[in-house]
Amino acid sequence: MDWELMWDSLPRLLGAMPLTLLLVFAALFFGAGVAFATALLRLSGNRVAETLTAAYVFVFRGTPLLVQIFLIYYGLGQFEAVRDSFLWPMLREPMWCAILALTLNTGAYTSEILRGAILSVPLGQVEAARACGMSRVLTFRRIVLPVAIRQMLPAYGNEMILMVKASSLASTITMLEITGLARKIISQSFAVFEIFILAGAIYLLLNFLAARFIKYTEWRLTPYLRARA
Amino acid sequence: MTIAVSVSSFTLGILFGSAGAAAKLSHSLILNGIAELYTTVVRGVPELLVIYLLFFGGSGMIMAVAGIFGYDGYIEINAFSIGVASVGLISGAYSTEVIRGAVQSVPFGQIEAARACGMSRWLILRRVLVPQTLRYALPGLGNVWQLTLKDTALISVTALAEIMRVAHVAAGSTRQPFLFYTTAAVLYLLLTTVSTVAFEQAERRANRGVRRA
Questions:
Q1: Which residues cross the membrane (chain A) (predicted)?
Q2: CB A185 within 8 A of CB A198
Q3: What are phi and psi of B117, to 5 degrees?
Q4: Cα(A215)–Cα(A224) distance, rounded to whole angstroms?
Q5: N or C: which end of chain A has fewer CB within 10 A?
Q6: What is the pLDDT of residues B153-174, one digit of tens each?
Q7: Distance in angstroms (rounded) separating the CA atoms of residues A67 and A70
Q8: Class of the CATH domain delimited by B2-206
Q9: pLDDT tens across B71-116, in order?
Q10: Total domain count, chain A
Q11: Interface test with A, best of B6, B41, B43, B49 (most A CBs within 10 A)
């Protein structure tokens, strides 16, 4: 073990952390939007919308993320139409490709979590809201959604941790986030173990923080479950 | 190739998982600690990182161990073993939790009853605990299998010729990346769909003795 090298590389690896965090947060943010829309369409009762969203979820959950990233980064550039379109400046950048792939991936998983949570809201509560004269939108906003969000928190916490880990795949399309930078440092110093252990420790720390954050949010949102003093 | 890697690493994963679950459920603090460390680290670190670590550091690690035993030649491990080892390690960490949960869900009364019948510890394990655990663990292991299947795509970085690697090479030489990656995606979809159906069948068979209201 070369402790000095480890110590010297730490600031460099930490310097790559913002990029990892940017990827994760961007994917989670956009993914939440995609998931929300998908879950609503999936429960809409419209045949076409249901089939389309079910297919989207099926495809993105059934294929490896690596395939999705490569398909978007390498695959889309094959078409003239894509290269001529106004989106090309964005799709040319590995950054946007990575965010797009991660977004679509987490969107598919999260929509299933959200769908399950919405379905688990007791029908009696919805009936009660309707009996109070709430409109459908109001019922959804005031009753269904808050209960569902509380319900989905543990599963969503897993999804957040998966996203932190999935962001390392962006290194395969030349992004220099933590894993990518670790590989670069290794190709210069040949210190495989030192650097990868360091990188692993940073990921562990990130995931630990994410887990604590979810635990705390869960605790905040379920005051009625706490032991009454 | 993908199937070979998946099956081998899944089997290895179940072995690791059983050992891990046994260690977690044992009363030894050291074993508990080791198993806890194993599952926390492997589940908290990206899969790609584990694969890189074993791929770049694996032969060095083996050579260091061999050096202790007085052998200092160069040892090279093929990509297949590295791939299986790393994905098996990852899938083992997830299996550990699944198997531990399943073992704990076997009602304690049954073990007491078996003991009252005079069964030895091994016999209880073989006749009562394992068959029941298998039934409880099946849905969870199904999930782990899907994860394992998709993790094998990551082994393509070690140049092992599984689906993803072949697609990558073909895409590079024909300049039709979209076509080949789509084909790869379809193949993976096929594999996951087939295994979903297979696991459903297995579950139905394992639960044939359970009465449903």
A1: 20-41, 53-76, 190-214
A2: no
A3: -80, -5
A4: 15
A5: C
A6: 888 877 777 788 888 888 878 8
A7: 5
A8: mainly alpha
A9: 666 666 777 888 888 899 999 999 998 999 888 888 888 888 998 9
A10: 1
A11: B49
Residue the block writes with tokens 């965010």: A99
- Domain membership of residue A193 as a residue range: 3-224
Q: Where are the domains of chain B?
A: 2-206
Question: CA-to-CA distance for A72 and B171, rounded, in angstroms?
Answer: 13
**CB neighbourhood size of B206 (10 A):** 17
Token pair, residue A146, equals 């808050």
Residue A209 lies in a domain: yes
**Which residues, at least 6 apart from A223, have a Cβ–Cβ distance to it below 8 Å?**
none
Nearest to A62 among B52, B171, B189 (CB): B189
Cβ partners under 8 Å of residue B99, min gap 6: B14, B17, B18, B20, B21, B133, B137
Sole residue written with tokens 């959604």: A145
Structure tokens at A182: 């670790």
